[in-house]
Fold:
Amino acid sequence: MVSVSPSFAASPAAAGVDRFVSFFEGMTAADLDRLGEVYADDVHFVDPFSDFRGRDHLRRVLEGMFRQMSGYALEVEDCVADGDAVWLRWTMRGHMRVLGREPWVVTGVSIVRFDADGRVAEHIDYWDSGSQFYQRLPLLGRIIARIRRKVAGH
Structure:
């Protein structure tokens, strides 16, 4: 479901959001050669593990993700667009050996801003790395679970 403001529909970002969503929903390691179609050279990227600038750096991060993860799949569930930005709610699935046999499921939100050419200038991912990643690690997960219970008062 996409909710688009009139200012967004008339902006260069309107074509960029479709390209961005299609890219991430179908992305494979081979698609990383097409990052320049989607991202600006000096893109600013932020997630719970990273904060950097540059499409080359983003490519290295995504290459690392594909080395560590099998069965990558991402589905954008909602999208709200206004001005030069979109807010996307998504679910990513895959398997990471370090997290055990169970599939890794991450739900999150991205704020994506586009440049005048309709390419991504800023991509910020928000998701709960504590419960969706760190707590699933064998030793660290038990420690985090204990801390969460104490903070919650149970």
